[in-house]
Amino acid sequence: MHELKALIFDVDGTLADSERDGHRVAFNEAFSQAGLDWHWSEALYGELLEVTGGKERMRYYLQRFRPPGESEAVDDGRIADLHAAKTEIYTRLLCRGRIPLRPGVARLLAESHAAGMRLAVATTTSLPNVTALLDHCLPSEALSWIDVIAAGDVVAAKKPSPDIYHYALRGLGLTAHSCLAFEDSAHGLRAARGAGLLTIVTVNDYTKDQALDGAALVLDGLGEPDSPFTVLSGDAGRATYVDVALVRRLHGARRD
Fold first, then answer.
1. Quick check: helix, strand or coil at residue 122?
2. Measuring CA to CA, how many Å separate 23 from each of 30, 106, 134, 178, 233?
3. Is 184 an annotated catalytic residue?
4. 12, 17, 163, 184: which one is catalytic?
5. Alpha carbons 79 and 256: distance in angstroms, whole number
6. With 214 labelled, which of 96, 124, 177, 233 sits at a CA distance of 20 to 30 A?
């Protein structure tokens, strides 16, 4: 049996509810500052989340929702500039405390680190977004707990491709059977499972109705001792929140 040695976390929607009130707001402000009439409502953004990666999401929006010919008029350099502006705005939102971590995240990271477990991040969001979130929402030393940050464009194929998880595993120097992943969506679950990782999914408003077959557990969140999670799929035993004991039990029970 393989020992559980590391936890690998997605970021947006998993560590923080950052999509609706963070990235979406930042995109809209970047569009406005650039003099564009683009606007992503909450409902439209939910559809755009089917495309992973911010630059890829803008390109899809142009092709799917804008007048014919506009996509060809916006080159990759303009897309990159808009994305850079959006990242700067998103960081300011973090600094103002507008994007808190989801309940249980800070506790689980601290407990796992204290237990000697290694930690990693595997996300399609950009590296500055990741470091800004960790810097502003966790204790000052927490960034040093993360052994590997696989983020942004370090791999060509975004989730649901498993490439970002393979990259994280190489950085950790571990096999998938020694790790467990945390995700929030069907795309993320497919990516993690495609890399051979046992996966816990904590859904949010955008992902709660997605098909999440193959997850070890599907929960409405990590929970806290005084605020239990709701199990949507899987067997959490008598646990009411995700802690080191639960992830070790799930890992020890894996059969694939």
1. strand
2. 10, 21, 16, 32, 28
3. no
4. 12
5. 41
6. 124
Gap between the Cα atoms of 126 and 252, Å rounded: 33
Is the pLDDT assigned to residue 162 strictly greater than 90? yes
pLDDT over 90 (residue 59): yes
Cα–Cα distance for residue pair 86/107, rounded to 1 Å:
29
Whether 12 is a known active-site residue: answer: yes
Q: What is the pTM of this model?
A: 0.91
User: Out of 3.40.50.720, 3.40.50.300, 2.60.15.10, 3.40.50.1000, which CATH number does the structure's domain 6-17+100-252 have?
Assistant: 3.40.50.1000
In CATH terms, the superfamily for domain 19-95 is: Putative phosphatase; domain 2 (1.10.150.240)
Q: Which of 10, 17, 184, 243 is catalytic?
A: 10
Tell me the C-alpha distance between 16 and 94, whole Å: 11
